Amino acid sequence: MSESSPISMVLFACVHNAGRSQMACAWFNAMADPSRARAVSAGTQPAARVDPEVVTAMGEVGLDLAKVTPRGLTSDLARDADLLVTMGCEEECPVVPGLERIDWKLLDPKGETLGRVRAIRDDLRERVRALIDERGWAAQSSFRVRPARQDDFSAVTKLLENADLPLGGVREHWDHFLVAEASNQVMGAVGVEIYGSYGLLRSLVVDERFRNRGVGQALVASLNPLIRAARVSRLFLLTTTAADYFKQLGFERIRREQLPSSLNASEELRGACPASAVAMAAQVIS
Q1: Dihedral angle computed from the Cα positions of residues 76, 79, 82 and 83, in that order, rounded to the nearest 10 degrees
Q2: 282: phi then psi, degrees, rounded to nearest 5
Q3: Domain holding 152: CATH number?
Q4: C-alpha closest to that of 162 among 200, 201, 199, 211
Q5: 2 in a domain, yes or no?
Q6: Same domain, yes or no, for 72 and 193?
Q7: What domain range is 273 assigned to?
Q8: Residue 141's pLDDT is what?
């Protein structure tokens, strides 16, 4: 650990800082306890931007790299780190005496298909999680997302009531709900109503005690396998207070009349959600 700070710094390095190191850094900062460790990333030959497929793949799990700019890997940057994790920069990576170094052999995502980039993304998530657990950097409030069970219903409806969110249609679409939990306590929930090739995201709620910890992002990202399996091509939502938040998750504002007519079967559109609610949409990437 650096003498200048009680917080350990991990430096993820690759060649262009446009793929592997960016994904690893984003995963690390999303999962590690910020009071114990943080991560930065750099490249020996930094690109002009993060690879578009990497931005897309990470956006699917709620991690936004669209505005991140790759930066160069310098000896000074490495000297400030407590651990250097390299991925492909080989002998170009700086050697700092006394700095612990780990090398992860990973395929460069540049030029790969989105499916292959997703596989690299998921591999990195598991490597980063194992590193965090091994070093004792895990956030004490770690949680998991799983399908909702019948015995979760009362806890979820209570969260929705406390957040002044509509309950209409929750029971009818319960099979398409997910919950986030920690220590057997429901921290949040989200659901999706499916109408043919369109989906309506609804009931995203997080207990106020657990907000600002990435729970909402994790819940929305965890819907991806469900909506892809249902062949949903576009996801819509209505919100009265969280348009800016959903924009960070990849949703864009649309006019209310642009909502597909098939969504009129939802109780949210038939009155559970006020007419003043903002309509938003996002493309589902298969």
Answers
A1: 80
A2: -145, 140
A3: 3.40.630.30
A4: 211
A5: no
A6: no
A7: 144-283
A8: 56
The conformational region for residue 122 under phi > 0 = left, psi -120 to 50 = alpha, else beta, is: alpha
Chain position carrying tokens 């079967």: 265
The CA distance from 132 to 194, in Å, is 37
Return the percent helix, strand and coil in the chain, to nearest 5: 35, 25, 40
Q: Give the tens place of pLDDT for each residue, 235-254.
A: 999 998 889 889 888 899 99
**In this predicted model, what pLDDT tens digit does every residue of 103-152 receive, in sequence order?**
999 999 999 999 999 999 999 999 998 999 899 887 665 688 999 999 99
Distance, in Å, from the CA atom of 37 to the CA atom of 27, rounded to the nearest integer, reads: 13
Give per-residue pLDDT as tens, 12-23: 999 999 999 999
Helices (H) and strands (E) in the chain, counts: 8, 11
Tokens 């007519």, located at residue: 261
C-alpha span between 69 and 75 (Å, rounded): 19
In a domain, residue 239? The reply is yes
Q: Which two tokens stand for residue 252?
A: 């864009």
Q: Which of 37, 7, 12, 35 is nearest to 23 (CA)?
A: 12
User: What type of residue sits at position 52?
Assistant: P
Judge whether 278 lies within some domain.
yes
Q: What is the 3-class SS of 77-126, one letter each residue?
A: HHHCCCEEEECCCHHHCCCCCCCEEEECCCCCCCCCCHHHHHHHHHHHHH
- Strands in 198-206's sheet, in edge-to-edge order, are 144-147, 177-182, 185-195, 198-206, 234-239, 278-283, 252-254
Q: How far is CA 255 from CA 16, 249, 260, 267, 275, in A?
A: 40, 19, 11, 19, 12
Overall average pLDDT of the 54-71 stretch = 90
CB atoms within 10 A of CB 175: 10
* Count of structural domains, the chain: 2
